[in-house]
């Protein structure tokens, strides 16, 4: 399967001024010692999969996959093709984190001046069932460190959590000025 890019190079190689870095060995076209493949070859996705998805490839990202393939093969638009296939890799989408620079130094929260004016809220899930409950909503006053541990059944909705929060916290302590949660 040949494309116009390879056909043009083969034609130019027969002329008096052959393109640099290309060579023809036993009927195979090489670019800087790497085998040239048509961009639409059925081997291109197989090669990317082999160099990316196998235990040797280790799902190591587009650039490393490209470098591994580029050591032996070449085709036009190679980097773009590798990036596209790696971006569509289901395992990478599920397991890889987004590479971002750190957010910076943590800033301390201001010290609250009134009890139950500033609270923190978190959920503890994955607990063994007890009376049908398997989650806890933990609400802590940031000044006094007084805490409420409210049992929940999983799955719960935001509407249900808001109703329980109003019934258990706002009813007893009033509406807080701020709620800190992760």
UniProtKB/TrEMBL annotation:
InterPro entries: Integrase_cat-core, Integrase_H2C2, RNaseH-like_sf, RNaseH_sf. GO terms for molecular function: nucleic acid binding. Residues 106-182 form the Integrase catalytic domain. GO terms for biological process: DNA integration. Gene3D superfamilies: 1.10.340.70, Ribonuclease H-like superfamily/Ribonuclease H. It holds the Pfam family Integrase_H2C2. This is Integrase catalytic domain-containing protein.
């Amino acid at each position: 399967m040949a494309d116009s890019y390879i056909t043009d190079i083969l034609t130019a190689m027969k002329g008096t001024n052959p393109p640099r870095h290309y060579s023809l060995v036993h009927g195979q076209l090489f670019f800087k010692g790497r085998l040239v493949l048509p961009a639409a070859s059925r081997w291109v996705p197989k090669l990317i999969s082999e160099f990316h998805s196998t235990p040797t490839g280790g799902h190591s990202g587009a650039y490393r996959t490209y470098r591994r393939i580029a050591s032996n093969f070449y085709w036009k638009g190679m980097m773009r093709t590798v990036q596209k296939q790696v971006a569509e890799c289901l395992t990478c989408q599920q397991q890889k984190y987004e590479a971002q620079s750190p957010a910076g130094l943590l800033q301390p929260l201001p010290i609250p001046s009134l009890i139950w004016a500033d609270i923190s809220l978190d959920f503890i899930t994955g607990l063994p069932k007890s009376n049908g409950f398997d989650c806890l909503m933990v609400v802590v006053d940031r000044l006094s460190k007084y805490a409420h541990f409210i049992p929940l059944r999983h799955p719960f909705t935001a509407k249900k959590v808001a109703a329980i929060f109003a019934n258990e916290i706002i009813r007893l302590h009033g509406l807080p000025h701020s709620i800190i949660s992760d």
